[in-house]
Amino acid sequence: MVDPRGGDHRAQARYFAPLAVLDSETLTERQEELARAVLEAMLLAGLPAYNAEAAADGEETGVGLTPAPGSSCALRVVWQQDATATAHLPTDLCHAQQAAMHQALRTILAAHRFWIEDGPLGAAPIVRGITRPGRGARPRPE
User: Fold this and answer.
1) What are the angstrom distances between the C-alpha of 21 and each of 46, 64, 91, 93, 114?
2) CA 29 – CA 20 distance, rounded (Å)
3) How far apart are CA 14 and CA 32, in angstroms?
4) Is 141 buried (19+), middle (13-18) or exposed (0-12) by CB count in 10 A?
């Protein structure tokens, strides 16, 4: 078992990928591969992965994943806000924070050359592939 506090980003992404899936959804093999790549990019950016095991203890903040509607290959990347903190904030502030984090996720994914579906500003990004069609392979960190 990988120590989630140590190791390289790729090893951590492999460890967290199954734990970052929200609502006990099941991912296809292609979605699992994409989940590992997405989480590696998020970890490189310094963002925590959502962890279903830690969420059971009340630690719910992080980057979560769900299968994208109507696709066996794509993932929706969702920022999970801390439920305890949001309970003390006005609803409009919670929505603004959520939209800002989703835009940040979209920016990080684009910087790592993921193929992202066009969507409304502030919506959780849907990732269709590791690289955009017609463009070279995404460079791997060393």
Assistant:
1) 19, 6, 25, 25, 19
2) 15
3) 9
4) exposed
Query: Are residues 13 and 40 in contact, defined by beta-carbon separation less than 8 angstroms?
Result: yes
pLDDT level of residue 55 (50, 70, 90 thresholds): low
Instruction: Report pLDDT for 54.
Output: 75
The terminus-to-terminus CA distance of the chain in angstroms comes to 22
d(CA 62, CA 48): 5
C-alpha–C-alpha distance, residues 45 and 111, integer Å: 10
CA of 72: how far to CAs of 9, 16, 23, 40, in Å? 25, 20, 17, 21
pLDDT in tens, 96-134: 999 999 999 999 999 999 999 999 989 999 999 998 665
